[in-house]
């Protein structure tokens, strides 16, 4: 059972995650978190060594939360195509994301690229792990005879993630989810071309 301190720290992370996702690492201040959480600065600093530590832990929390949600959606399915479809469907509505502000992986990647090297490494590791997992699912589909060996799992996984992440940004910018629905359907149709 979590202690009161652990519960408070978890609460801070949960409150801070959408703020970081919407405003970015540089855009969030401790005062923003104080206002949203109704906690004191002293309480927040009692759980984190400073803004850098808080930022690292909030990003880690957001990325873990994202991974858990995607994994849960994918593991509900049985076949490789169903699992890949569940991954795509997870991102189908980029206007209403599970953490306000869009995809935390993409948002963090853009900001961390030039400004936060340690966070950039964490994001790069998440992208690599996600690519490996998706590629593995596609390879399982090939190995089981569900998908043709003409499919290159690594290339398709990369194309799919790059298209979806780019689609999120564009759809959020134009405030319309429709292009993403079309993109997801096009990706599913392309994968269907490899069905046996």
From TrEMBL:
Pfam family, one: TetR_N
This protein's UniProt keywords: DNA-binding, Transcription, Transcription regulation
MF terms in GO: DNA binding
DNA-binding region extent: 29-48
Chain segments annotated as coiled-coil in the UniProt record: none
Top-level division of the source organism's lineage: Bacteria
SUPFAM superfamilies membership: Homeodomain-like, Tetracyclin repressor-like, C-terminal domain
Keyword Transcription: yes
Protein name: Transcriptional regulator, TetR family
UniProt cross-references to PANTHER family, sorted A to Z: HTH-TYPE TRANSCRIPTIONAL REGULATOR LMRA, TRANSCRIPTIONAL REGULATORY PROTEIN
InterPro entries: DNA-bd_HTH_TetR-type_CS, Homeodomain-like_sf, HTH_TetR, Tet_transcr_reg_TetR-rel_C_sf, TetR_C
């Amino acid at each position: 059972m979590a202690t009161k301190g652990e519960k408070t720290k978890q609460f801070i992370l949960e409150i801070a995650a959408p703020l970081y996702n919407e405003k970015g690492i540089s855009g969030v201040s401790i005062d923003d978190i104080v206002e949203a959480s109704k906690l004191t600065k002293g309480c927040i600093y009692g759980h984190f060594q400073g803004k850098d530590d808080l930022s690292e832990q909030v990003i880690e929390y957001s990325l873990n939360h994202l991974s858990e949600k995607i994994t849960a959606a994918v593991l509900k399915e049985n076949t490789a195509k169903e699992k890949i479809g569940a991954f795509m469907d997870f991102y189908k509505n980029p206007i209403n994301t599970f953490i306000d502000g869009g995809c935390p992986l993409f948002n963090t990647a853009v900001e961390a690229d030039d400004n936060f090297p340690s966070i950039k490494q964490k994001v790069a590791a998440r992208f690599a792990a996600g690519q490996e997992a998706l590629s593995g699912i596609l390879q399982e589909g090939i190995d089981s005879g569900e998908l043709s060996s003409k499919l290159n799992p690594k290339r398709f996984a990369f194309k799919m993630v790059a298209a979806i992440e780019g689609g999120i940004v564009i759809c959020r910018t134009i405030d319309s989810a429709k292009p993403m629905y079309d993109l997801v359907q096009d990706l599913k149709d392309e994968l269907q071309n490899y069905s046996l």
